[in-house]
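Appendix B. Raw example, untouched.
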Amino acid sequence: MAKANVSSAAFAQYIERLQSEVTAKKYKSAVDEFNRTLSRAGIESFAKMPRGTLNKYIELLAEQGYAPASIGVYVSGVKRYLRWVEDQGTKVNPQSKAEVPKKRHVMRDILTPDMLRAYVGYADDLLQEPVRTAAILLPCTGLRANELVSLPLTAIRKVDVQLQGRTRRVLSLRVTGKGGKERTVPIIGEGAQVLLTYLSSYRQTRKGPYVFPGARSRHNKKGEIPMATRTLRYAVAQLREPFGMTFTPHTMRRTYLVSLWRRGVDAPTIAKIAGHTNIQTLFQHYLNLDDQDVLRAVHESEGTRNAKAKR
């Protein structure tokens, strides 16, 4: 499989430009494992792959203990790889429909308003800049960790918005996410004031194009490298101990999106803010609504209809 190995290296460079750092890494691992599977089976070219090769690969992943969700990601990566290989002019024998194990969607935890206030307090007490402001902005922007740490100063926008007949200047972010797609992200809660304070104090002492410059080193004397994603993840891990629950920067992303829902923002708008192409992604993985949310949504809409009927 020498030809496949060369292709996989080029594919790795290709996919890094289109996907997030985490997804690209998983896709590369998926392709490496797939090529090893081909080599072990003595398959010398993509054109000679039996139609059931992809399903055999799925079986091997399951035998190795991969969870259904991980298998789904790996299969997506291999499918993307095979399409890319074809685009390069290499013949690929069509594969049978992939029989991916069904995964059970489990809604993950979010922080309640009281927990969120405590989280901000802990961040304020325990962390130093610039990671302090970055940690606080996670639940105020809903950005993925890698999006937040790589945020350029030019992404910060002050926009005049008409609200109830009055003009109000609000702070927002213009973010480039997966696939190079741009979106506008509102900053909620205390996030705007925290960011403005940070920009007028600590950030004034640092150079470079990023909102959160990386630590000074011989490789980063001018602040031209952003804060490492792992630095932010480690900081969040420090803050979760008092809560008795495991949460990550992605927990803050879910918390932000549910906060928008509770503010009355409609689902299509929330999906656009989150950068979700498919609105079902929002409902399946992010909108962890409790009984109060469900009842309030129904009865508030009922009250609105009754008020319109009386006019």
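End of appendix B.
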